[in-house]
Write a structure and sequence with these properties.
The chain has one domain (2-182). The longest helix has 22 residues, at 98-119. Helix 1 (2-17) crosses helix 5 (84-95) and helix 4 crosses helix 8. It is mainly α. It has helices at 2-17, 22-33, 40-44, 57-70, 84-95, 98-119, 128-146, 160-173, 176-182.
């Protein structure tokens, strides 16, 4: 089963997640997306669903493409290096309720519809500049939507791109590549140092 395989592969991600300043990361993601991180509380206590496979390999590949456009590989790893697509699928399956899982799943079709409307091609077939431009527009649309009252409730669920972006950021920065090669990483357990000098230009501590 795909879900069982993903749970096994994601164990390393969870290890690094619990070694980070989780609350600060979640706060940062909330600020960047304009909405509280959906499902975060359940993930922090090790949620598991009883559902069968919900996302296909094609869905995971699509999430990887979107995530890589949000966090592309440069001189540091990108979202694909961290297998963020797998994280998105597993998190949504285990920690989202059915309405939010449905929104995320339908978001694949909606994003492709936006891509076809603007560029006459599906998202995966766009070039890097087109992907960036489309996602910037969707991000602005989602933030405007999230600024309205009652977002995140049954009456007004989260915007699909908000879910994709939140899980991309959470998945990447709690992965081994994100934590050790992008953020400064201090393995746990280790000795406690209450005050560590910070030099201008250095990356943040994970």
């Amino acid at each position: 089963m795909l879900l069982k395989k993903l749970r096994k592969e994601i164990s390393d991600i969870k290890q690094y997640y619990f070694s980070m300043e989780r609350r600060e990361l979640l706060k940062t993601i909330a600020v960047l997306t304009g909405a509280s991180v959906i499902g975060a509380d359940l993930f922090m206590i090790g949620c598991k669903s009883k559902s069968t496979d919900y996302f296909s390999e094609d869905d995971i590949s699509f999430f990887d493409e979107v995530a890589e456009s949000i966090i592309p590989q440069t001189d540091t790893p990108g979202a694909k290096n961290a297998e963020t697509g797998k994280f998105i699928a597993l998190f949504a399956t285990d920690c989202y309720d059915e309405p939010n899982r449905t929104i995320l799943k339908e978001g694949i079709s909606l994003l492709n519809e936006s891509s076809n409307k603007k560029y006459k091609a599906g998202f995966i077939n766009l070039n890097s500049s087109q992907k960036q431009e489309l996602l910037i527009n969707l991000d602005q649309e989602a933030k405007k939507y999230n600024s309205q009252d009652s977002v995140g409730t049954k009456e007004k669920p989260a915007h699909y791109f908000t879910l994709i972006k939140q899980l991309t950021l959470l998945g990447f920065f709690t992965s081994k590549p994100g934590a050790t090669k992008v953020l400064r990483y201090n393995p746990v357990p280790g000795k406690y140092e209450g005050c560590i000098d910070y030099k201008k230009g250095e990356t943040s501590w994970s």
